[in-house]
């Protein structure tokens, strides 16, 4: 049985993973094609691609939480989870869309 503190900690890790996935995707879309702006937001098709990237990056981080860092509460593990999840998510996006 899990305690309230453990559940809160796990939920916080999920929220941070979603925020990081959105932030990294926004950065990638900002630097896309060398324009360094957010004009991509005008097109609905770009939003669809944005959601796919966020989903892939977020899912990769959740997989790392579930399989590698379920009971680890250190900051190092959280950093590895986020960085590794971003790398796995981008690799999966290249694999699926490339």
- Biggest sheet details: none
What is the helix tally? Answer: 3
- The count of DSSP E runs of length 2 or more, i.e. the number of strands, is 0
| Helix content bin | over 70%
Into which percentage range does the β-strand content fall? under 5%
| Chain-averaged pLDDT | 87
Q: How far is it from the N-terminal to the C-terminal residue, by CA?
A: 43 Å
Please supply descriptive tags for the structure shown above.
3 helices; 98 residues
Descriptive report:
By secondary structure, the chain is mainly alpha-helical. Helix content is 77%, strand content 0%. It contains three helices and no strands. It has helices at residues 4-31, 44-67, 75-97. It is elongated. The N and C termini lie far apart (43 Å).
Which helices and strands appear, and what pairs or packs with what?
Blueprint: H1 4-31, H2 44-67, H3 75-97
In short:
The chain is an all-alpha fold and 98 residues long. 77% of the residues lie in helices and 0% in strands.
